[in-house]
Amino acid sequence: MVEIRSPSVRRGWSESTRARASEIVKQYPDPRSAVMPLLYLAMAEDGYLTDNGMREVAGAVGLTPAQVRAVASFYTMYKRDDPGRYLISCCTSISCMLLGSDEVLRAIEEESDVTAGETDPEELISVEHVECIGACGGAPAVTVNYELIEGVTAEKARELVRWLRTARPDAIVGAECQELFGGRRSFDWGPFDRDSALGPYPAFGPLGTVSGPSEDQDG
Amino acid sequence: MTKPVTVTINRRLVNAPAGELLIKTAQDNGVYIPRFCWHPRMNPVGMCRMCLVEIQTPRGPLMVTSCTTPVSDGMTVDTTNPTVKKAQEGVLEFLLINHPLDCPVCDRAGECPLQDQTMAYGPGESRFVEEKRHFEKPIPISELVMLDRERCILCARCTRFSEEISGDPLIEFQERGNYTEVNTFPDEPFRSYFSGNTVQICPVGALTATPYRFRARPWDLTFVESTCQHCSSGDRINLQSSQNRLLRILGVDSEPTNQGWLSDKCRFGFEYVASPARLTSPLVRDKAGELQEVSWGEALDYSGKALGEVISRSGGRAVAGLGGARGTNEDAYAFSKFLRSAVGTNSVDCQMDDGLDPRLLSAIVDRARIADLESAGSILVWGPDLKEEHPTLYLRVRRAAQELGAGLVVVHPRGTGLDDRASVKVTYQPGRGGEVLTELMDGNGRMAEAREVLSNGPVVALLGRPGYGESPDLAEATAAFVRSLPDATILPLARRGNVFGALDMGLSPALLPGRVQRGTLAAQMLADRWGELPAASGRDCRGILEGLESGDIEAVVLVGADPVRDVPDGELARRALEKAGLVVAIDQFLTDSSRMADVVFPAMGFSEVEGTVTNIEGRVLKVNRLTPGPGQSRPDWAILSDLAARLGVDLGLVSAQQISQEVEELADIYRGVNWERLDWEDRDGIVVSGDLGYVPVFSHVASVSPRPGEMALHYARTMYDDGVMTRESPSLRPLAPGSGAHLHPADAARLGVGEGDSVDVTSVSGSLRAGVVIDPTVEPGVVYVPFNQPDTPSLGTVLGVKVSG
Ligand code: SF4
Ligand code: FES
Ligand code: FES
Description:
heterodimer; A: alpha+beta; Arc Repressor Mutant, subunit A; Glutaredoxin; five-stranded mixed β-sheet; 8 helices; elongated; B: alpha/beta; seven-stranded mixed β-sheet; six-stranded mixed β-barrel; 26% helix; globular; binds iron/sulfur cluster; binds FE2/S2 (inorganic) cluster
């Protein structure tokens, strides 16, 4: 007996998300080139990349959902599982590894009781190890909800986890975390400016008429 | 491809067209280079590395993939030296690392390219001792296809086919690295009309077809080449059976027609042949009104006597024939000869009210060949949705637009499978075709772009009737206009399996065998052979049905015809058969129509009879026999010949091959077309031409609109419907979409209904209840209802219908 999964309930994007999607599509000569930024948009919409989000992306660029999923599943930064409220990503590529990222990751795992790739039962903290995040100069580097903290030590990493547990900040602000848990920075990032911040979805810089994700976009 | 170049392959000089791929040049010159991902009908990707060869370059020897390397003048190639050998072994060793050793339970074993090439080119022994990768064993990715990801070697043939050839990429590589797999989107199955092709081209057993899995071993199969009879494209196929049971159909790469591809209907729509519902014995209606099994003698005596009575009482013109487009040319010829010389009537129609002029279909001037699409500057498609009704032709048009750069203009009442490749798509309300044509001829406004595209010659126009709401005259008027376009050729569209062959054999009121018009000199020559031809002109399908209803026609002979389900106005057909004094049916099944017959003869059919068919471009192709017919079934021609004998007429038909010879002698255009040629050197078929050159006449087609309060009905066929061949094929039956009312979102809102709600669609001749499908591709004010779905009554050839929630 052949059983085929029947379509799940479809839920469209909101008008404003749709509008933003079509703004992004317009930036490219060929709509399908917009797949990757739109996948970030889909992540912003649902908190992670849902089937529904991928289907919407497909509709927006004229591909099939299978083709969109092919792209999405190739890249680890498109999250297809619902992460906890705080996603701690620990770089374990060469520069960070040479400067002790293994210990940092172990400290995070122990302190949070979450193994890399997983989420705690409370759905508060997810831990993952990632490939180079472009902060080699400030190795070892960690991001929380894609906000960067450089020069992290095992001890600071434990503090970070404890802080997330207890303080449960509404928004993660990179500059603030760096202050509290970071060490040596790769270079002077300048004063923190919310308006120019890229937020968790790097493709959403000030891009033509496209505005960045709304302020409360941290979860 | 310009000047030929000279290449040295394995120390032998060969010539090749410049730019040809090395792997192909080698193959054409007898050097087989192993490969997995390369397929001659798809663009190369160089993914599997199996085709590595060594070429000499100024910087020394270099390994290249021969499937991505074009030949160039003076190139020196070695395909067998130790380096190449080592590379081949290495590639195979890597491929086998993750490939399970389940050949004993794998359907592909015995015809598996991986198995074969490992034997031929692989390392004798495995060094792999680790644990292999595991996936859940076969998962269904559609009703027809199972996927075993462990076996997949990631050659991307299936995914490329879906994207490049069929244009419905519902399968793709998912995940990355060691976890890469082919798969669908989680809730969107691989429901492609062409999914079976991926099974055929998968070089391992990763994709298997549910209808064939575990049915046979390749070495147990007997096979023969034949021609598909589901639509009129004349696709070449390979029939395969085991123990007298048809088990599988594969596509044969025939350049002029299907180029190796098949639709799933063609590939899997053979199961009906072995259906337990097949008729095995003649049936005659007894006194109590029940059909009872009788002997052949009784059934023939009964029908001979009854027909004879009608003829002597009211003359041959009181008898009519319907059908004949499902069988071979030989059967159609016998039917034509039976009606005209034994019965004495010209009332016969094989097109069953699809409505186009037979002369337009089979004898138009400037008739296009399918191959003309390859060199077309632009293509106009205005007719049925090719993807639904002419699937392999759809692939050819798609290829022309996508790969060969032809401009494409599609005119249709709703979205079609070709829209994503169309340069211009015109959607319109059914019934307004005449207006659209005028606009297109003027070339102003929204049509300016279409005319611009169509100014690129040569133009190939594929014209037919988009749906039953459209006037049948529209195609002819369009054809007349198209002739003014640069180097235009026209391919008139009619879908029934052998409708063009049947027309060539004279199964229409106006045409006699060989595309001869009644009343001409050629007709006189035919009369010399056949005896006096009936003088009175005949009626077409609609005329016959109306005649039966009014009593002008008293008897009808149905040959593979189910008018109740198959003509657009099924209710008319039902009333006609009820009123008819005598209905004689030659059929493979008891259908809604043959159930109403007085006598039913069990007929042999596809894969059971040998003969010829003629495709949409006039190409004659051979069909062959592989399995025996069920029970006492017999070929149509033999039944008709015996029936004629009961009427005291000897048709002189002794075998299908003799009939074919008779056709060859008697129909000028079929001269030289014989079974020997078609079986051997002309397996791709022979195009018969030398027509009467029918010039399409322009007529102003008036636009019709539905009455106030009504919606315009677009009533058209889908690939899978309730036709007996689909219904009796268990694998395809569930794929019929079922009745549906496709509404524009605005209309749905107006009616206050949403997707999944039901509405009543009512026409003057029938009414049905259908689920609402929100379809932004139809125009506001139009409702699209798929024709002939399971358990749905017919709405007739009407334009206006009432739709209520
Ligand atoms: S399923 Fe078959 S055709 Fe598709 S990529 Fe895998 S091996 Fe190739
Ligand atoms: S290696 Fe860690 S940021 Fe580059
Ligand atoms: S056949 Fe050339 S790389 Fe696969």
